[in-house]
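Protein record

Derive tokens from sequence
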Amino acid sequence: MRSHRDFVSLVRENIREQGDGRSFTFISEEPGRKYKENVLGFAELDRGARALACRLEARGLRDRAVLLLYPEGLEFLTAFLGCLYARVVAVPAPLPDLDAERFGRTRRIIDDADITLVLTDTAHRDTIDGWLAGGGLKGRVHCLDTSGADGEAPDPGDWTPPAFGPETLAFLQYTSGSTSEPKGVMVTHGNLLGNGEEIKRRIEGSPDTVGVGWVPHYHDMGLVGQFLQPLYLGCSYVFTSPITFIKRPVLWLELITRYRGTITVAPNFGYDLALRRITDRQMEGLDLSSLRVAKNGAEPVRAVTLERMAERFAPVGFRPEMWMPCYGMAETTLLITAAPLGGGPVIRDFDAAALTRDTAVPRDGPSGAEGGVRRLVSSGRPVTLDVRVVDPATREERPAGHVGEIWVGGGSVASGYWRSPQETRAGFQARTADGAGPYLRTGDLGFVADGELYVTGRIKDLIIVNGRNIYAHDIEEAARDAHPAALAGAAFAVDPEPGRDDGVEHVVLVQEISTRAAAGTPLDEVASLIRARAARAFELPALSVVLTGRGTVRRTTSGKLQRLLTRRAYLAGEITELARDLEPGVAGPSRAPA
């Protein structure tokens, strides 16, 4: 790591060295399916950030939290960097829309972080002002349009750097909130320097790196991996919005081709979407040979996605060794582990029955759940962080090949949750039974085999059936592979009907379905097929399947499944069913409260 004590001094050194020779480029969608290139050079970004820092300093906001509500684009970058320059605690969040859950989440962030100022652009100021007034926040929370100026525009040369140190709070990363209460992760300048170096070493990044992506800026993968890492490296980055990507996934690969991207990063579902939606005709003219790294993280990495992607796009230059499966979270700034550069993914088969007893036994033979085998993709190895696998009950460290909770120690681990000392002690200051620590308790389960970390699931998503540990996402994957019409699904445990407790764990799978892909097969037959395949794969004695339309399964703003909220919606009768195959005695919408 370079000898910097804070992130701002490192960024300004890179800006002095690179000037506008390095830039952020945003590709926006214009009417008529045209795309506009918007370029912001590093020197221009620095000038805008210094001017905004002066405005924030004049408002007396040093060390106060400020909410950033922006659409995807370059204005957010200037606002975020301006907050860093002013030693104001930036709080990135998605723009609130008409969705009640999004409104509620934004309001909870305002209350939790004691927000008095919202930064946004000209196009959204009036809407946000109206939303604040409607929420009873007028007069308490003000909105500042950073695209314009209040009176005379400040001179960037008037900015004087405040004092920074490794412990200076840089920003709050509010967790996506798979539960109803988002928590603010406190990320310091030292955390940014530490994780920036972790990523740099793993990808062998330099000013010649060219990043391409579409992950939203309010998500830890987007903010740290896509926007702050280029500032750490002094390299260029090209991006578009998630909505533009979803509308036309081939644009992602077109940008890699046009700008000769060397690294890209996305959750597994992004690669899946590219596989499903990019046509053979659209592949004409693509050239992915410049890529060195294709990171896949933020959710379970599917072996079938890696294999199909490498096979489908091999003719246009995609190579399997580009894959870099990785594991990280907001609480560790971002990266925890990743596959070594150029090594490609490590995919292994393990005995499925042994894994339900928390033991990882490598197994040769046919792949797939029905063969008694679970295929797992390694999340790679740590660079310098201390990663342990610990029994969550006894706090004893687990030996290699045994499943436990993943604990992490080192400079990338954030300082805790904003104004939550009890949750900070429980989550960030854990010690093993022999006193080693402190460690972050990730809440994820996994094991180490031959030095590789395999993440098997979340503790809270664990379903215990007859003493065996079944992971919700395994059931969901088996269901998705059972029929071509199956899309995303959410599996969760529910109680039996009152008076009918048979001592069996009842599992419900809410399964999104493509009626077109069902190709005329009656949906009740599709439900029965999915139920039979998934139940047989994991020996589930009481599995119920509910088929529903696309977009029903609840997700976070970054696309992660929200099983708890989907369960609540199911029990509250808020799921529109297309077909179902229910286990007798299972609690349903008309029988059980959320």
